[in-house]
Amino acid sequence: MKVKICGIRDIETALGAIESGADAIGFVFAESKRKIDPEAAAEIIKCLPKGILKVGVFVNETKENIEEIVKVSGINVIQLHGDEASEFCKGFSVPVIKALSVGSPEDLLRLHDYSCEYCLLDSPKGKYRGGNGVSFDWSILDGNILKDKKIILAGGLNPENVAEGIKAANPYMVDVSSGVETNGQKDPKKIQRFIHEAKSVEREEVK
Questions:
Q1: Quick check: is 10 catalytic?
Q2: Predicted TM-score (pTM) of this structure
């Protein structure tokens, strides 16, 4: 099971997450308490291993600004977390994750509208897009709709429930931000536990 730790703002947390087994690191360039500027992200990214996915999170941003931030920061994946139409998600210089808010089974049908490399399933919108620490009803997930898509499960995941989420969604990757924080700051022990729990599910399935 692949794991993305999102909302990274310093090099120590990024390297600690990777050491614990993270496969992807997320940087928020949209309005958020975890927002980082492209230059600061670039300083972190240049210290990260090549094989790690460096994901930039955007909300209703212009294509021009996104591509400029890709250039400046060195991210190698774009996550579109706003109201972007399927046509907008095409033609970027790096792979795209399209995030969709899931509040009902009908919301899952929107997956067919997008031909992005990855689709991220998140909780309905709160104050900010994502990072709200609330999970959606995993029982509405339909394996027939999700098949043939690289699904990233997000929204309210934490070390206690990530294994349950993986069993319900069978995703390609899980994504966490607030679920590995203490008092609004990334907690290395929670990150370590989250990654361990997520990767243990895969080990159990392989037996």
A1: no
A2: 0.92
